């Protein structure tokens, strides 16, 4: 019998994963800032985010990019950070409080069903979040609904597997060792919007105009490959789910192979894990 993708089960599992990984994702926020910070700045610039704007962050996670947006819109602006996993949002608020930023609110929301008014935000952003939505078009149409006319949606996604070996390497090792089948057609995941033009096409299909995207090299830089392994071991809950069927000894062996494979990206200057991102924007037509 052919296996069918179950979006509701996927959402439940994803929520549990991020509830589990919340503390680690928060703890690693300096790494996230140095790794994804330049692409985040570009995303906000491409979306023409200005002082005083209202910004909605979809799948905000631990909120490091929400805080960057809050700093950009200033005290007269407002950021609503949303996610399926409330625990990780608590860390977003904690980080904002540590930085003395008080123009952020958090709310547990499914990005495909935004319980928010029409035409209520200047900008909607999603950093490495849209790729994990089972129904990306539904999410984009909801985003379009809550945007003010002329407002921008902006997203960061991973480009192709071969350009993102910092992550595709452990995934391929685990998939082989756990004897997992390839992802089902249309299934959400890290590379679901990776091919050239796919993010642009998704925006256009949802009715956005003035669509554009840029490629950004964003290597994961650390002292050693084993630091990256630790980052992924602690923060990437989906990898543990993929390993679920293996014994403890087999899991240990898999992580050791991942360390060996990732060490190929380490030299006398440290570790530089290949990562390439696509930053895309689209504009809601003026009505």
Automatic annotation (TrEMBL):
CDD domains: AdoMet_MTases. GO terms for molecular function: methyltransferase activity. GO terms for biological process: methylation. Its EC number is 2.1.1.-. InterPro entries: SAM-dependent_MTases_sf. Coiled coil: none annotated. Keywords: Methyltransferase, Transferase. Pfam families: Ubie_methyltran. It is an enzyme of class 2 (transferase). It comes from the Bacteria. This is Class I SAM-dependent methyltransferase. It comes from Wocania arenilitoris.
């Amino acid at each position: 019998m052919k296996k069918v993708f179950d979006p509701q089960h996927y959402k439940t599992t994803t929520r549990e994963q991020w509830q589990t990984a919340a503390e680690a994702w928060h703890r690693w926020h300096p790494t996230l800032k140095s790794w994804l910070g330049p692409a985040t700045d570009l995303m906000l610039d491409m979306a023409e985010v200005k002082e005083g704007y209202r910004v909605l962050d979809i799948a905000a996670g631990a909120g490091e990019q929400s805080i960057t947006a809050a700093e950009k819109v200033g005290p007269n602006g407002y950021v609503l950070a949303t996610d399926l996993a409330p625990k990780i949002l608590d860390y977003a608020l904690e980080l904002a409080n540590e930085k003395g930023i008080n123009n952020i609110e958090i709310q547990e929301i499914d990005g495909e069903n935004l319980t928010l008014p029409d035409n209520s935000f200047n900008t909607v952003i999603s950093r490495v979040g849209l790729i994990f939505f089972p129904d990306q078009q539904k999410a984009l149409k909801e985003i379009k609904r809550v945007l003010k006319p002329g407002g921008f949606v902006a997203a960061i996604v991973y480009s192709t597997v071969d350009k993102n070996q910092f992550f595709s390497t452990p995934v391929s090792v685990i998939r082989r060792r756990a004897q997992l089948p390839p992802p089902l057609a249309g299934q959400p995941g890290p590379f679901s919007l990776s091919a050239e033009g796919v993010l642009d096409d998704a925006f256009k299909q949802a009715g956005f105009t003035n669509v554009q995207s840029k490629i950004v090299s964003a290597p994961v830089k650390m002292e050693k490959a084993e630091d990256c392994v630790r980052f992924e071991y602690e923060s990437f809950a989906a990898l543990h789910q993929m390993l679920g069927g293996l014994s403890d000894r087999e899991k240990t062996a898999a992580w050791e192979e991942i360390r060996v494979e990732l060490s190929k990206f380490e030299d006398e200057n440290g570790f530089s894990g290949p990562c390439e991102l696509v930053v895309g924007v689209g504009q809601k037509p003026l009505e």
